[in-house]
Design brief:
By secondary structure, the protein is α/β, with parallel strands linked by helices.
């Protein structure tokens, strides 16, 4: 489906840091960009365009602000060898965000003097002209620029300044405030509700269509937001910032995770809170090796908070597990208390402003979205404008799946289907990858036998089949072995992308052979030397990079919270040192049981990073039903197992609620639920019986592959038992099994 006008509008803001040049003059541009089939293609077009990639030698996005007749030669001094004790001069150019960044830098870096310039505003006030601008560039030790078109202009007109230029991101994010936008009348922005030119798209739509104030207030509700797609804006906003961060080499996934952990990090769609600007300032100083303190944002005035502040509507806040309200903050006088207005006051004030114009004259690309185009019909069908006078039991009318008696107690154990609303199905051409604990191997094998496009870039196809199996090729999509923890997963991603190189070297076994600490059992015979191990690891990580970049669907099975890590750099191993090689050294290694927050942060960081390199990727999370084989905690293994699985299941649910491209598949519930007792476990109460695997894969294929509900019933009990024996002995590889065999 072609992208919408609003997607194009936000692409201009995210990637170019500016608005489209008027609805009429920019109509042709909008029409052309709307031909892209998805947001990923649109984003790639912006990243590759001349204005964004510095190919625009005329600097159109900025030259209009600078009266520069001739290029200026400026000093070629760089920051190399700069004395931190000296007073460094920094100039920052951009939008309203640069002043906050400059204030933080000046406060946290004693040797810094920062002058910030709001491009456009300062130009209009005649603070910038060719001569003055050249002087500023010439005297600056560091030049911070917002927008790559600005970078190109400066570099072209002021030769010698290139090495002192640093690009800073312009933060635009409407995930928490999707109703906040701009509206025009005949290409001129209008005001509304006493909030300047920040407008409620929903309220302005209602006024355009003659809806009363009372009925407009009824529109601010969950089902309308769902229809308008407001809950999906969080994903597109995250993706846009991640792509922008990639383009200017800024660690946006890590920063986004930090910001989102604090709730809504925006005062409005393009006014970040000060801690966001502070993190940008700290990252700039870190990358330039300039000494500075942190935590200064607690004591620096947040100037953007003095402006309009848009609330996170309670329904949207609930979807993101943060606080919300319908209180809007107006611009107040300096040193005065903020003036807050509620939703009714805001809508009333907005309509008063709109009444200056003709009905239907308000214009916005947002009105062309499918949700707004069909909103009138939706209102009629749902009778939104009429307040409900009935007081039904909230459970009335819910589906049978919501009731234990109907959906669990009343069905036979082997026909229970706990999946209700899965994500988009798996196509035959979709590249499906698997990773995680040993239970993920069951899914991998069954997908292959069912004819799906099981994706494994590291397949060992040049080897004989027996050797492939012995050396663990095809067990997972790449030869990374079991990834029991979320920390392993995110570190594997960073290692494959060249962003993390662990300090831990090869582990030597008692027989003198070497193993890779991060996949200690993939070579049964071990490596002859550490150099051989490193060479194999390099080839492996190249395949992993290809995997993450090209996969369509990743099925990841969460297995454990208990782990062992290096004290040197936090690198996490699948097994404790000394189990499959190496030796436990207390000064270098430690046990770590990841908390629920750490597991959530790891998994969320991975999802953000994966979106950055592969925006189309979908992730299906499962929790392994296989219990811990041992615990290092001073408590019973049963208690540790319950704790670990509870944490993993809770985190999986949180990720599904936050990420629209993430789904949860209940293999854990199918195998361990009360409906089956221990019927799906072998005598050791750990290994999953073939009937259990069949049940899991029947439900999986039914919902994700459109298979008939009887798909798993075709194999007899004897066939299942035979397959179980083979799988247990030869195929299912669990690194932790070696713990039970260690003397």
């Amino acid at each position: 489906m072609p992208v919408s006008q609003v997607a194009v509008e936000w692409a201009f803001r995210l990637f170019l840091g500016r608005e489209i040049a008027g609805l009429e003059s920019g109509k042709k541009t909008v029409e052309n960009l709307c031909k892209f089939q998805n947001e990923q293609a649109l984003a790639e077009a912006f990243v590759k365009c001349d204005e964004f990639r510095l190919k625009n030698t005329q600097g159109k996005g900025f030259s209009k602000y600078i009266e520069c007749i001739e290029p200026h030669e400026v000093r070629k001094r760089t920051l190399e060898g700069f004395d931190p004790s000296a007073r460094i001069k920094i100039s920052a150019f951009g939008n309203c965000q640069v002043e906050g960044i400059g204030n933080v830098i000046e406060a946290c870096c004693k040797g810094a003097h920062v002058k910030s310039y709001h491009i456009g505003v300062d130009a209009n006030r005649a603070k910038l002209n060719g001569k003055a601008f050249a002087s500023i560039i010439n005297e600056s030790d560091l030049i911070l620029l917002q927008g790559l078109d600005v970078v190109n202009t400066i570099s072209k007109l002021y030769t010698g300044s290139e090495k002192r230029i640093r690009v800073i991101p312009s933060i635009t994010f409407n995930g928490y405030q999707p109703d906040n936008d701009y509206v025009t009348v005949k290409n001129f922005p209008i005001m509304g509700g006493g909030l300047g030119n920040y407008i409620s798209i929903l309220a302005s739509y209602c006024w355009n269509h003659g809806v009363s104030i009372e009925n407009t207030l009824e529109m601010f509700r969950d089902e309308v937001y769902e229809h308008l797609g407001y809950y999906n804006y969080i994903t597109s906003s995250r993706n846009g910032l991640i792509r922008l961060g990639q383009a200017i080499d800024f660690p946006m996934p890590e920063l986004l995770l930090k910001w989102m952990s604090k709730g809504c990090f925006m005062h409005s769609i393009n006014h970040p809170k000060l801690f966001v600007l502070a993190d940008i300032a700290y990252e700039l100083l870190r990358k330039n090796s300039i000494e500075h303190s942190r935590g200064i944002e607690s004591y620096v005035h947040d100037q953007l908070a003095d402006s309009v502040c848009w609330p996170v509507y309670p329904e949207i806040a609930a979807r993101n597990s943060i606080g919300g309200s319908y209180l809007f903050k107006r611009v107040g006088l300096p040193n005065s208390l903020p003036e807050m207005i509620n939703l009714e006051e805001f809508v009333t004030a907005s309509f008063t402003e709109y009444n200056k114009y003709e009905k239907g004259s308000l214009q916005s690309p947002r009105f062309q979205e499918e949700g707004f185009q069909s909103l009138g019909q939706f209102i009629k069908q749902k009778k939104i404008s009429q307040k409900s006078k009935t007081n039904k039991n909230p459970y009335s009318g819910l589906s049978e799946s919501c009731f234990w008696r109907k959906s669990v107690a009343a069905v036979t154990p082997d026909s229970l289907d706990p999946v209700v609303a899965p994500l988009q199905g798996i196509g035959r051409e979709d590249r499906v990858a698997t990773a995680g604990s040993c239970f993920a191997q069951h899914i991998a094998k069954r997908l292959s036998t069912e004819g799906f496009n099981y994706y494994f870039p590291e397949d060992g196809s040049a080897l004989q089949e027996e050797e492939r199996k012995e050396r663990h090729y095809g067990v997972f999509s790449c030869r990374y072995g079991n990834l029991y923890t979320t920390r392993q997963l995110v570190q594997l991603f960073d290692r494959s992308m060249g962003r993390f190189t662990p300090k831990e070297g090869a582990w030597q076994r008692p027989d003198g052979r070497y193993v890779d600490p991060f996949r200690p059992q993939i070579e049964p015979a071990g490596f002859e030397s550490e150099a051989d191990m490193l060479s194999s690891r390099s080839e492996h990580l190249a395949c992993v990079k290809e995997l993450f970049s090209k996969l369509d669907i990743l099925v990841f099975t969460l297995g454990l919270t208990e782990s062992w890590e290096s004290l040197e750099d936090g690198a996490v191993f699948p097994l404790a040192p000394g189990v499959a090689g190496g030796a436990m050294v207390p000064s270098r290694h430690r046990f770590r049981n990841l908390t629920a927050k750490e597991v959530a942060d790891d998994l969320e960081l991975f999802l953000l990073k994966l979106q950055g390199v592969n925006p189309k990727a979908r992730v299906i999370l499962t929790v392994s039903p296989v219990p811990l084989i041992a615990t290092y905690e001073n408590r019973h293994v049963l208690v540790s197992n319950t704790h670990s699985k509870s944490v993993l299941r809770t985190v999986a649910g949180e990720m599904v609620s936050r990420y629209s491209n993430c789904d949860y598949f209940p293999s854990y519930e199918i195998i361990t639920g009360q409906h089956v007792g221990n019927g799906y476990l072998e005598e050791d109460l750990r290994s999953v019986r073939p009937e259990g695997v069949d049940h899991v894969m029947w439900v999986f294929l039914k919902h994700y592959a459109g298979k008939a509900a009887t798909a798993s019933k075709t194999s007899s009990k004897r066939e299942s038992e035979q397959r179980s024996a083979i799988e247990r002995i030869n195929d299912i590889i669990c690194d932790e099994e070696i713990i039970d065999k260690t003397p």
